[in-house]
Structures
1.
Amino acid sequence: MAGEIGNIYFVTFFVVLFEIRFCSGEYCSYLNGRTSVNKGDCTELEHCVSNFDQTGQCPGNQCEPGWMGPGCQYVNLALNPLNKDNVFDGDMTTHRSINAATVNLNGTFIVNAFIIHTRWFSGSLTVRDGHQNVLLQKSFQLVSPTIVLPRPVLTDILNMQFSYSIYIKEIEVFGGRDVALWKPTNQSSTYSEAIPNGMIKFSSDKAVDGSGDGNFGNLSCTHTATGHSKNPSWNVNLGKAYSIIAIKISNRNDNQKRINGFKLFGTTENGTKLPVYSDPLPYHNRNEIVLDSTHMPDVPVSVITIEGPNDTEKILTLCEVFVYGKIHKLS
């Protein structure tokens, strides 16, 4: 196990030398994300393409492709390999005239809102799910681009029909906010590696730092210690109860089998630990694992726990755990 990171301590030393405490420009942008230094000063706007203004907001909500909504904090379910049209490419400079659109979500998700980026629209819009059930049918002037469905729906497709052809820059579907980002974490043990100037610890917080980089040498992945007899585990405390829409786990580029056979749990506010998912693919290597809404618990949870498999290594490595959720509202 020794030497997994080689000489990467030179990179770490370089980064430390150039850490500065301010919140502007690329320091707070998605290119670098927040660090242990700036996370207390910056907002959760890692996915803003442009520099932040002095209020800490993302001007014009020009988001990195795949992110959307206020502060670019919400994942966009419409940007996925199943949607090839320009209106789903994450680029606001491309557009075309359409009178209908089919949005494939690449999974089954709870949806309650979407955004249509267009110059202006006054007419009728009908939205149906994959079974042709009508989710929304109304006439309106589209001034604000955000459209909220009368009630959330579990679906894999949204079919949209406009009363006439309109120019559309982009259609985006809200998939929830990453409610695990920079939240408190723990793991059953922590692997450390010696370098000439000290030790590098692959601590539990590296799975919620906003980076899904699977290159272990870039120091953004967790790693439990070796030589333990118990199953390794990791958890994140979300701080409050959320209705979970989906969870995505970014795996490391090598040693991918260590995640195989994992189990995922959610803990409710009253302390009940619910089984959420048991991995059925113990022999497949995967860069990432996406669990859609069909796997999520029916009740809000405040803690997410991942337990590694009971194999010979007993090592759990996570490069990022994205927990897409929304605050549960009492009816």
Note: The helical segments are 9-17.
2.
Amino acid sequence: MYMQQQQPLLSTQDFNMAAEIDTRNPDVYHHRGQLKILLDQVDEAVGDFDECILLRPDSALAQAQKCFALYRQAYTGSNPAQVQTAMDGFEDVIRRFPKCAEGYALYAQALTDQQLFGKADEMYDKCIELEPDNATTYVHKGLLQLQWKQDLDLGLELIGKAIEIDNKCDFAYETMGTIEVQRGNLDRAIDMFHKAINLAKSEMEMAHLYSLCDAAYAQTEVARKYGLKPPTL
């Protein structure tokens, strides 16, 4: 709740207090590691994931999220050797935990960064097979189709499927709105952004969505005023 209110210091203090109360609770380190990722404190996040794994070696989520943290660190630092080590780590995670959908999803994101689109698509398919009701995976797979094959119809179909599965998936509405802006369908884009705004989980997220919506609205007004047709994909 503190993180949703953009109060990371209070959030960190609570997690630190939890760790002092129960030093052997793996959940504390797991969730604090996730917090550290959000705060871009990757080294500390990896340390917390390691502590979680030490206490609970069968924690597939912690293993996968540690790999992703190491990957992001290597990728942003332009270190090809460490990137490959992280990718090998993902392979090890999905081998040891073949039922962990998050492992496949995070690996797919890393593969997409590396432009290994075919394998990323396979990972998303595996994730959907394990969790067919996870709307976010359909959005990521839809975005992959746009980046990989420039297949707008399939991309929109998959994002539409995400909304069908979960009509409270703000990520799907935001993504659909962004695509509709690029297609020149500004009224529909504004509608999608409004739906996402109504589902926003934090003030920062809401501000971001309002900026997208206002930009689309401004384009609409300019187009109407001057009789222009918005550019389309």
Note: Residues 133-222 form a domain with the Serine Threonine Protein Phosphatase 5, Tetratricopeptide repeat fold (CATH 1.25.40.10).
3.
Amino acid sequence: MSAAAYEYEYFKVSFPAEYVALVVIDRPGKLNAFLEVMWLNLRQIFRQLSHDPDVRCVVLTGAGDRAFTAGLDVQAAAADGAITGAGRGDVARAAAKIRRHILEFQDCITAIEKCEKPVITVLHGISYGLALDICLASDIRLCTSGTRFSIKEVDIGLAADIGTLSRLPHSGLPLSWVKDVCLTAREFNGQEAIAVGLVSGCFENKEVAVEKAVGMARVIGRKSPVAVQGTKEVINHSRGRTVEEGLNYVAVWNAAMLQTKDVKDAMLAGLQKRKPTFEKM
């Protein structure tokens, strides 16, 4: 698949290595703040990547050095009534429309989580609000030491509703810290993020962080897509379920997937002391 197949407004998609896609949020003049069309395009890109046989791992970052994303473009959202539902008449009917709107935006972010391929998000600079929604829907999170995180929604008079308040309590982080950053909207940096476990890597600048992410994606891309996609699916399914339920699910999953020729190819390559290659999926 060529980059020409991924031409979406406010995004750039490239392929820096075999089986690796690099998605860049591209509105740097506005700190990569999201307009409604950007949510919709993000969903379409990740749905497309999910089924692209030439892609096995995705890296997501923001254009420019100032911000991964400043979150929602509040001015634009307020102007069209997306936040308050202003001018929508009867309260019950307005609430129904707003609920549909929220659910659609939630689905746009969940497209990252539902992507069959692992997604590595690299945060840098200003990473407010939606930045947390996006990275928490990702599989691996990296950042720079200068990243400025903030769950900003309480400062604009609302409870975050696109994913952070639902995913963060399930991320294995201390609940007191979760409530601290959600209730105060205070900024925290990359060092705090890695200390608490929000990210698994913190690097000196964006260039180095993206390079590390692409290197990690290249490693993942060389592995069996059957094994990688199955691993992501089983881990995500096991979250919030009992160990017994997870064991049963992976048994059913592997009843089919263990029949892949990738197992034989990987074992044979090991015996022959060579790197295995796997068919596209």
Note: The first helix runs from residue 36 to 50.
4.
Amino acid sequence: MAKTIKEHLQDIFDDLGEGNQKRFKSKLCDRKTEPRVRRAAIEKVRDSLDLADLMVNTFTTAGSVPVTIEILQAIGCNEQAVELKENTGESLTFTCFSEATSSTGIGQSRVYNVDAILDQLLVITEEVYSNIRAEKTPQIKMRELLMGTMKSAGTKGKDVLYKALKDTESCLIEDLERH
């Protein structure tokens, strides 16, 4: 029988160990994007099962995986982030920039650290940078970046975006380049 998302999350949290679990909970509490998790809720978490329950109850089953991956990457637990991506079947529905700008839209994205990518994009204005950062989810941020700014940035802009993606999302780019 296939594992549930909650079981995959619990496995990842077990693998983190006490120190990284503490860092994960701290980063989760400091997260500015809605829905936010209150410190009181985090303080009630006693073990990996409680943490998995909190993630699923707060972010839904589908939403808990991207948020968990985002936090794992932020605290430097990239191995666990990749493992969770692979085990849960997180996938990218676009494989190149032209597909990403099609009328079907982006759908679910594997790019979670959009802010780090934005920091490298010197071809965008400060206003565009602020507007994209203000968006709530990584998927909306990438959609805004690809459908607006990068669509009109030309080859230079796309080259800069590609380099930024390669620097911050190397596993994703390697996966896409294999296909």
Note: The radius of gyration is 17 Å.
